[in-house]
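input
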Amino acid sequence: MSELTTLARPYAKAAFEFAIDKDNLSAWSEMLAFLSLVTADKAMSQLLDNPSLTRDKAAEAVLSVAKGQLDEQGENFVRLLASNGRLELMTEVLSLFEQHKAEHDKTIEVECLSAVEMTEQQLSDLNGRLETKLGRKVNINCQIDPAVMGGMIIRAGDFVIDASVRGQLNDLADSLSI
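output
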């Protein structure tokens, strides 16, 4: 996976810088998301993996499916990836592009696992506290997981807050086993 990230990084950065330069971040985000879906499709993936398929034909196959979804620069981006044999990187390019976009917009996606459904007021309070703590606009995706037992687990990138009963029990078990 890290090799794919390394290979995708220059393409994602170039797409991001181009989108910033043209003040077209959201359109590029949409185009890359669509292309990611196209190239991740099982049938398309099998076609692109065919060693007898030329790079030009690979680009044309993707572009034929993406007809009307891409602007001229998006089509050129597909041709560039295809000419370098990198169409399989599209999902990783999208992921890295979205990371650049989130940094630029000063936003962060936060995953919250809670034992019970949270009220709007609780989510609003949590959102405010996380925005203060992280110094960014926070988009919370809260899911219910009874295995948490009580409390919540919050993940924002590498930052994790385990305020769950299960986490506290695990900490207690670890301290007792020393």
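quick obs: The first helix runs from residue 2 to 21.
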